[in-house]
Specification:
Layout lengths: L1 E6 H14 L10 E4 L2 E6 L1 H18 L9 H13 L2
Antiparallel strand pairs: 1-3, 2-3
Helix pairs in contact: 1-3, 2-3
Length: about 90
């Protein structure tokens, strides 16, 4: 089991998007603690890797601007990816 720390805003974004795109992952995220604006999750490696892969795919699809710099969406997704790539 991994302990993953993620900012509450990024966690909310993750939940909102996974509900649409990967709803089977939502129950795995219910084991969480919220403290001081951060969420701590207890996940196994497989789930963590799947979320990281999803975030990386989304960055490639829509996370860059016309100059190939991360846009706002890309920055959020990169934060999420960083949390789950432990």
């Amino acid at each position: 089991m991994l302990n993953i720390k993620i900012k509450k805003n990024d966690f909310d974004f993750l939940i909102k998007n996974l509900k649409k795109l990967k709803p089977h992952l939502i129950p795995t995220l219910n084991n969480s603690d919220i403290n001081n604006g951060n969420v701590t999750l207890k996940l196994d490696d497989e789930i963590s890797n799947e979320i990281n892969d999803w975030a990386q795919e989304e960055i490639q699809k829509s996370g860059y601007d016309e100059n190939y710099d991360l846009n706002n969406l890309g920055k959020i997704l990169q934060n999420i990816s960083d949390c789950f790539s432990q």
